[in-house]
Amino acid sequence: MEVPCVRVERERGEETRRRLADRGLLAAEFEIEVEDGFLYLPVTDAEAVPEELEVVSRSVGERETPDAPADLLGFEPTYERLGDIVIVDEDDPATAREIADAVMASDVPAKTVVNRASKVKGELRVRDWEVLVGDGTETVHREYGCEYLLDVAEVYFSPRLATERHRVAEQVSADERAFDMFAGVGPFVVPFAKRGAEVVGVDLNERAVEYLRENARRNDVADRVTAIQGDVRDVVSGSSRPQGSDGIREIAPDYADWADRVVMNLPHSADEFLDSAVELAGDDCVIHYYDIQHEDDPFGPGEAAIRAAADPEYEVDVETRHVVRSYAPHELNVCLDVRLSR
């Protein structure tokens, strides 16, 4: 059957396959073929393929339909994948175990299945897990050409926000100075640095900062990343003087008026840190402010808080009011892209 395929040199095949998979462009129902030193990767949408990749039409074989957990269970289970860990969220232990066994017996590429054992809790935003199958909770997650080593039991990370992180990263220009106030393992920091920005990432969780430093190295952007452990308010005010780390340059002593872009992805309490964000902002700065509000007025409270914090030093222009996802019944997770101009 003739289908659009990305044609790429064999030595670049795995890198390109991952890149297409991260964008959801691989056509899983067709075989990947090799001929004369080139890989042919079937894609679902030729128009969405990055323009630097070559797309050709080629006759390729159809793959046999792989066994999915639903084929083995007789119902469609709810789960998500994070690297080679499959995450389920089941209150009934027997159902959780049944899903875990089906996942491992299926063609899903998983080494571990875990069940959520608590809600996100505490200042470090971590949760408890029950390991149903496998050993260990560390994995490597890949999205949009970046990879992140992390341990789900020690850090907060949501694969559901990959599209949102990419939306923001695409706005970043080379030579910007960007500051992620709640950086985690680096899912904003790393792609920003890959686009040529100088990036500072701060997090209260010491383990998250260790992973952030490692992920900067893994993605070859350590020379553009500063990773700091501590309360971001102390870092911005200068009352904290964190140390640098091997492979990561030493930090500057003062970040007042420093940033061209600030990320505030702490949606339940980002408003408590707006004074620090304004202190960070340079003469012209974009703030990505995440919030959770009732659907009747999802943007108003955040916008009012930003204007109050920025007044009278800055003019405030809301460039984007964006719904990220539904969070709970009648509640929305939203982002305000706001430009502050001194």
Automatic annotation (TrEMBL):
- Any idea where the SAM-dependent methyltransferase TRM5/TYW2-type domain is? 79-342
UniProt superkingdom: Archaea
One GO term under biological process is: tRNA N1-guanine methylation
GO terms (molecular function) for this protein are: tRNA methyltransferase activity
The record's section on SUPFAM superfamilies has:
S-adenosyl-L-methionine-dependent methyltransferases (SSF53335)
UniProt key word Membrane: no
Q: Please indicate if the UniProt record lists S-adenosyl-L-methionine as a keyword.
A: yes
What does the UniProt keyword field contain? Answer: Cytoplasm, Methyltransferase, S-adenosyl-L-methionine, Transferase, tRNA processing
Q: Which PROSITE patterns match?
A: SAM_MT_TRM5_TYW2
Could you name the Gene Ontology cellular component terms for this entry?
cytoplasm
Its protein name is Class I SAM-dependent methyltransferase family protein
Taxonomy of the source species: Archaea, Methanobacteriati, Methanobacteriota, Stenosarchaea group, Halobacteria
